[in-house]
Amino acid sequence: xxxxxxxxxxxxxxxxxxxxxxxxxxxxxxxxxxxxxxxxxxxxxxxxxxxxxxxxxxxxxxxxxxxxxxxxxxxxxxxxxxxxxxxxxxxxxxxxxxxxxxxxxxxxxxxxxxxxxxxxxxxxxxxxxxxxxxxxxxxxxxxxxxxxxxxxxxxxxxxxxxxxxxxxxxxxxxxxxxxxxxxxxxxxxxxxxxxxxxxxxxxxxxxxxxxxxxx
Length: 215
Known about the structure:
Layout: E1 3-10, H1 32-45, E2 50-55, H2 59-72, E3 76-78, E4 94-95, E5 98-99, H3 104-107, H4 122-139, E6 144-149, H5 151-161, E7 180-186, E8 189-196
């Protein structure tokens, strides 16, 4: 039996002074704090047996991967399958009583939270993430791989692997900035999932929460 670990890393903090939902929009880069988060993760994983570093094509993911790849002496691969989920509210502010939710034309997109109707279906996210992880496992067989992705794709695939509903309250996701969700494979089977926060002390607000299975 061959053990391989695939780490899913959420990118660091993004410079977003207008607080829009940036989704897949271009030109959203890491903030100064986000760069520090990426450096912290690089320090944390520098001595791990990571032989493959892959990132979403979005700038914030690529910038998070850069110091990690440098510390490991690896090139960065790009995989569009680990990109952020599509969302019809990209470029808008999103809140109750303001922004896009204030507009009646937006309400149709909120009709089905189980799919969800405002963006990419959860099951489509699972399919593409599992495929990217499987390829990373194959490429790093017997070692480790690190994929830089985004909160919703990481949490969705973790929920699937751990047998939870894919629909959920976003406030209960255990996937802080610059956190690592690590999948241990025994041959081609995912045997366990662990979670860690190398940059926990750098979070602008302490958002770490205890996760309770089934919550």
